[in-house]
Structures are given as structure tokens and as C-alpha cells.
Amino acid sequence: MAEHRSMQRAALLDAARSLLSEGGTEALTFPALAERTGLARSSVYEYFRSRAAVVEELCQVDFPLWAAEVAAAMQRAESAEGKVEAYVRQQLALVGDRRHRAVVAISASELDAGAREKIRAAHGGLVAMIAEALGEMGHAQPRLAAMLLQGVVDAAVRRIELGAAEDPSVVTDAAVAMVLRGVKG
Fold it and tell me: Could you write out the DSSP letters of every residue in 64-88?
């Protein structure tokens, strides 16, 4: 029975990822989850009490995996500058991943305070990783620089997701140049 519940919960989360990545937060409804999983709508409530609970669980499951991929890319880099570049490139490489699209859709939605705090804490881990690399580069205010750098990454993510005229690799290269060399590049 426990294994069945675990499989159903995983199916619901997978359906939620798909709905979020396809249609944003408006698409994440219990009737849509029920339809995608073949469950009765009332059964969905047995697993999650609200849409926010689905979002919170997705954050708890997906964000650490995404962050681990970014951390692994940074660890492969041989210099602090290489770590910064890897941080940017890996996040932008993940833009097409359903987990990433779901996290972006989640962060753009109106969430309750608990869900927002969990997302902030998860993002804090990413910011701490890049702040360390910026500190290694000798930046006087690595935490502030890390938050601003993440703003560049977030803007590049939005640009890629919009299907802008530029190829995603052009957007990625521009974002890397901006964070490494400022607006002069």
C-alpha cells in the first residue's frame, strides 16, 4: 500500500511538472491533475491539501536536483572565473528541462508565505555557491554581487523562454560575458 501511494504521489508530481511547464501556474488545477493521472479529483486531495502543497513538494523534490547539477558543473571548473561561468551556463542549459520550467512557473506564481520561504531558502543555497566563487575572485561584496548575478541569469532565462529572436546560445554567451566583464563586453 505504501509503495502504491508513493507511486501515485510521484505520478501527481510528474503531472504537475508537465502542467506547469506547458501552461504555467494557471494550468495547475486539481481537475487537471486528476485527468493527467487517471485519478478521481477527490483522490488528488488525499495526497495534497492544496495547490500550494503541490508547489511546495515540487520545490522540495526538484530544486535540490537542479541545484546539484549547477554545483557539479561549478566543481568541474578549475578557476573561480570558471565556476562563475559554469554557474551561469548550467542554469541556462537547464531552461528546457521540465523541472526547471516548473520551478520558474512556481516562482512566478502567487504562493503562500511557507512556499515562498522554501523557494527563497533554496535560492539562497545557489546564491551562497556563487558568492563563494565571487569571494575567491576578490569581489568586495560577494553576496550582493551574487544576487545581482542571479538577476542576470533570471533575465536570460526569461529571454530564452520567450523564444526571443536570438538563439539560446547567443543569450547564454551574452549573459556569461555580462557577469564576467560587466556591460563593457
Answer: HHHHHHHHHHHHH-SSHHHHHHHHH
CB 130, CB 179: distance < 8 Å: no
Distances (CA, A) of 64 to 68, 123, 153: 6, 10, 18
**Model pLDDT, residue 185:** 45
162 vs 156: CA distance, rounded Å = 10
pLDDT at 179: 94
For the chain, residues with pLDDT lower than 70 are 98-112, 114-116, 118-119, 164, 183-185
Nearest to 133 by CA among 76, 82, 64: 82
Q: Which residues of 62-100 are buried (b: 16+ CB within 10 A; e: fewer)?
A: bbeebbebbbebbeebeebeebbbbbbbbbbbbbebebb
The whole-model pTM stands at 0.77
User: How many other CB atoms sit within 10 Å of the CB of residue 125?
Assistant: 14
